[in-house]
Amino acid sequence: MIPLDKPIAEKYEIDISSYNWSEDNAKDSAKYFDDQSDLISIEVDFANSKFILILDLTAEESKNWDMKKWNDHLRSIL
């Protein structure tokens, strides 16, 4: 999850190297997670074995969320 000891940021890098996915697997997984919520999007940086998680910090629903609320939301879609 997102570290609780840092300020909320719009983007986070997630290491996916341990999954040993093909590029197509990584793209399919990113699309699946991206489709689970209108409050996030995920880009694939396959060359560096990372997902880039982008939070919609300006959405009406989430604009006042703290890090705990964001983590709760992410847990609910994983």
Write the layout of secondary structure elements.
Elements: E1 11-15, H1 23-35, E2 40-45, E3 50-55, H2 67-77
Antiparallel strand pairs: 1-3, 2-3
Would you identify the regions where 5 or more consecutive residues have pLDDT less than 50? none
How many helices?
2
Mean pLDDT: 93
What's the total count of β strands? 3
Structural class: alpha+beta
Question: What is Rg?
Answer: 13 Å
This entry's quaternary arrangement is single chain
Question: Which range best describes the helical content: under 10%, 10-25%, 25-40%, 40-55%, 55-70% or over 70%?
Answer: 25-40%
Order of helices and strands: EHEEH
Strand content: 15-25%
Q: Which geometry do the CA atoms define?
A: globular
- Our measurement of the CA-to-CA distance between the termini, rounded to an integer number of angstroms, reads 10 Å
Largest β sheet strand count, sense and barrel closure = 3 strands, antiparallel
Tell me the strand order in the biggest sheet: 1-3-2
Care to give the gist of this entry?
The chain is α+β, with helices and mostly antiparallel strands and 78 residues long. The protein has two helices and three strands. The N and C termini lie close together (10 Å).
